[in-house]
Write a sequence for this structure.
């Protein structure tokens, strides 16, 4: 691959879990910014800067304005962006093709969109395309069994608008990618054209761009997405990319093909994550959550605040044969001074044997507890919580009514070396319109905890509200634990794992906990 090693990538996402996914999949040293204004900070050569615009639930006008503001902020520090004093694009373009010889100093631009096309996708795409000669679109996510055929998203083979993936949304699912992208003028690129190879595909992109339109590509495999990314790179400056995490991974493979990096301890590099081994598809995140509500009045004295209901851990006899966990219950865990060798448990996805290690090891964590916040109503999350509890975690169940109130719910502080999982009781459902208050209440409860526990946050909306409440504005991605479960660190050294609510198999939480609390013998394989 012919490219400079100092290529800078600027990526925009509409929610936090998607931003973290892109930051990990690009495979470059990355900074994940929660404030778009931080795009004005000069990125280091060869760094990816990914910003969460937090725009999934904004109206179209506000979402488009957020994209334009982010592009302007990044353009102000791009020496090759070619903008005049008013911020208008001049001759230089804000994209240096991956294998272009041009040295314009500008970043490579990527816009992450939801593979299920949720959010103001069209308004953001149109705003993102304004300064580009052509915007290449590929929204397929093969790892989650979400493909695009004939311009239609198929979820496990079912057209998106006929699936249950949008059951929590307030409007109907789009019938095609082109429909979701309106008002952006687009032309579909069928699979047979994609599979002619990068050079032929790049020629088709040029033809579409010459007509003043933008290509929307079919794709069914990661190889298809790699061809699309390569073809876009052949076009040179002026091209931008918009797509799912699958296209981000393809771009990452191009960018890192000459600079492989070893996986960090406890995580796997993006290339090492098996495709879809632990992903449960055809699910949407919990509810049409609106922008966060105000934090509310100061919490009353502790004695008068509502408390959470706690569930004791399962008995220590709940062993690997029953649940195949990646961890052993607290009562059975060995001490740091005298651990027994890890046993093996068949991996449900691959059938391969993998090590079973304690989730409670505190080596390298400063003795912090681990708090798992299950902020999604996805059906698989209940089983994920159950397996973690069977492995010895403490379970705290919160009623939606408690969280939606003005008082801060008091959570039990995770003791050093323990794992606590917090979930919302969905047995009675969440009252329509209350999702915003529930998420805000959950964020307040977590932010009030003492001791700075490490965090596992599911659902992009939940993750963003919790980190906002904690005052976290920057994350540094470490790697992926499994597909979509991205391990980051805060500036003060706390671990934060974000994961879309619909991602991960039944053992997702157990795997994440084991990766964050590995034994001295190593991490789960």
């Amino acid at each position: 691959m012919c490219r400079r090693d100092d290529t800078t990538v600027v990526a925009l996402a509409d929610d936090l879990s998607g931003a973290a996914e892109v930051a990990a999949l690009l495979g470059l040293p990355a900074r994940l910014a929660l404030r778009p204004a931080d795009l004005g900070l000069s990125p280091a050569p060869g760094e990816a800067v990914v910003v969460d615009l937090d725009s999934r639930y904004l109206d179209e006008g506000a979402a488009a304005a957020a994209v334009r503001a982010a592009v302007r902020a990044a353009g102000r520090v791009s020496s090759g962006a070619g903008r005049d004093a008013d911020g208008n694009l001049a001759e230089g373009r804000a994209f240096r093709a991956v294998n272009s010889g041009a040295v314009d100093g500008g970043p490579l631009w990527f816009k992450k969109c939801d593979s299920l096309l949720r959010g103001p996708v069209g308004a953001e795409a149109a705003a993102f395309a304004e300064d580009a000669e052509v915007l290449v679109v590929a929204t397929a996510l093969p790892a989650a069994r979400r493909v695009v055929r004939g311009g239609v998203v198929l979820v496990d083979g079912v057209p998106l608008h006929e699936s249950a993936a949008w059951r929590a949304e307030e409007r109907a699912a789009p019938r095609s990618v082109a429909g979701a992208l309106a008002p952006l003028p687009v032309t579909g690129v069928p699979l047979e054209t994609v599979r002619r190879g990068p050079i032929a595909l790049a020629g088709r992109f040029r033809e579409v761009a010459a007509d003043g339109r933008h290509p929307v590509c079919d794709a069914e495999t990661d190889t298809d997405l790699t061809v699309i990314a390569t073809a876009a790179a052949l076009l040179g400056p002026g091209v931008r990319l918009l797509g799912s995490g699958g296209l981000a991974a393809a771009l990452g493979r191009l960018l890192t093909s000459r600079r492989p990096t070893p996986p960090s301890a406890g995580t796997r590099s993006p290339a090492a994550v098996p495709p879809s081994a632990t992903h449960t598809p055809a699910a949407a995140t919990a509810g049409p959550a609106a922008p966060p509500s105000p934090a509310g009045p100061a919490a009353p004295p502790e004695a008068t605040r509502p408390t959470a209901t706690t569930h004791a851990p399962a008995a220590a006899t709940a062993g690997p044969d029953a649940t195949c966990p990646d961890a052993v219950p607290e009562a059975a865990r060995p001490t740091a001074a005298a651990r027994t060798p890890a046993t093996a448990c068949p991996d449900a996805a691959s059938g391969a044997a993998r090590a079973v290690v304690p989730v409670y090891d505190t080596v390298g964590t400063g003795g912090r507890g681990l708090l798992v916040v299950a902020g999604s109503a996805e059906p698989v999350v209940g089983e994920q919580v159950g397996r973690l509890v069977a492995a010895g975690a403490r379970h705290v169940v919160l009623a939606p009514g408690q969280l939606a109130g003005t008082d801060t719910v008091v959570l039990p502080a995770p003791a050093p070396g323990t794992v606590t999982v917090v979930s919302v009781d969905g047995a009675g459902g969440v009252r329509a319109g209350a999702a915003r208050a529930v998420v805000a209440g959950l964020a307040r409860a977590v932010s009030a905890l003492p001791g700075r526990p490490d965090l596992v946050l599911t659902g992009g909306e939940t993750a963003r509200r919790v980190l906002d409440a904690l005052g976290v504005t920057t994350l540094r991605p470490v790697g992926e634990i499994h597909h979509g479960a991205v391990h980051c660190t805060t500036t003060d050294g706390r671990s934060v794992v974000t994961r879309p609510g619909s991602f991960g198999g039944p053992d997702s939480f157990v795997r994440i906990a084991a990766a964050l609390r590995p034994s001295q013998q190593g991490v789960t394989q």
